Structure formats: C-alpha cells, structure tokens
Amino acid sequence: MVSNMQDNLGHKHPISSVIREMVDIFGELGFAVADGPERETEKYNFDMLNIPADHPARDMWDTFWTRPLEDRLLLRTHTSPVQARYMESNKPPLRIIVPGKVYRYEATDATHEAQFYQLEGLMVDRHVTLANLKGVLKVFFTRLFKTESNVRFRPSYFPFTEPSVEVDVSCFVCSGEKNDCRVCKGVGWIEIMGAGMVQPSVLNRVDIDPREWKGFAFGMGIERIAMLRFGVDDVRLFHSGDLRLVNQF
Description:
The protein is an alpha+beta fold.
C-alpha cells in the first residue's frame, strides 16, 4: 500500500551550511582543508604557537585538561594546532583552512559557549604580506555576504602572529546607513575575526626559514558568522537541538 503521508525531509543545520559555504569559497581561492585531533597535546596547543608554560598569553584561554593530568592532554582551545602540525609535515608554499570544533572552560551566555566551531586559515609563501591577507578576506566576505565588502585592520596582539590585527568587515545589511541596524548598530563595521603575519619563531619551530618564507594566519568563530547571517541572537540555540530553529533552514 502506498502511503499518502508527506515525507518529513531533514534539514541542514545552519552551522553545517555555513561551514560548507566557507569551505567552498576558500576552495575557489586555492585553500585546501586540513584537520587534526580535538584531544590535543600541550605542545601543539601552546608551545609550538609561541605560548610557553610561563607565557602570560596562556591566561587568554581557559582550558579543559583531560585525565590523567600528568599526560598534559587537553581539549584544543583553538584550531591553530592543526596549522603547526601541517607546517611540520608539509613544505611551503602552503594554503590551508581548518574548520573544526574547539573548547573553552568558561561560563555560557548569549554570545559564549563551552564548545563551538572555528575556521582558521594559513598561507605561507615567499612574498606574502598583510596586503595579500586583506585581499583574500575582502574576496571571501564579498562572496559570503553576497555584497561588496570592505575590510579594515586594527592593531591587536596574538602570541603566534606579529603584527597582529583585529579584522572588521563593512556591514552587509546597511553599510552604516541605518542607526538601528540589527547587525552593526549603525557603526557601519562588524568586528569579525583576528589575524596577522605568522610569528617568525612559529616558523622556526616547524623548520621553515622565516628569512625565506612569510605567512599570514586568520581565525573566526563560525557561530558568530551564522548569527550575523541568520539574525540569531543567542549562540546557545545552535546546540540546543530545538527543531524550531533547524527546520527554518
């Protein structure tokens, strides 16, 4: 007997959709996808990235350490360890992105989760500059937000890049023309990611000569992008399992 009941089709999770779109855009720009373990060693999560045991920058990340503690294993606090692993086992020129899940031991609220997704990127070549980084990001955000985007840099600090910058992208909703814009609040710019030129000491640790090779790296929160794209005001909704959200996509 043929059922006349309408099939209930599944829906792509909005985070999965955003990751796929980001991977496709960077793929068109020549970036391959790299992956690595979520249970990471202290060496790759911190030491290889210019964050030694006594470095104050370790205070920037609250870490889930796994038992037994003497093994010094942890749930990775960012996807940057994959960049170190990849550079260690591959010779430049390199061009990769790393989408993946990361963990922070912190309280949750509308904009913070204990587990979330990041996408990081790395390019290493002989004549890479901040101008190349800016050009790549401008193309990426223009394609992602489907409107001509501008990018601006503000000075910042990250232990594994020098110089380091905070990256703002022009508002894809109002371009700064609406004081009540839900996305930029009328400022015209959206704080979106951190980036910079790869610290020479990081290159030295993976046996890449910083006198010959230069690189840029960037990292962004995928939930942050999804919240902006879809007008979601609480990051916890993405991991709630609430079908009222998922069924909209």
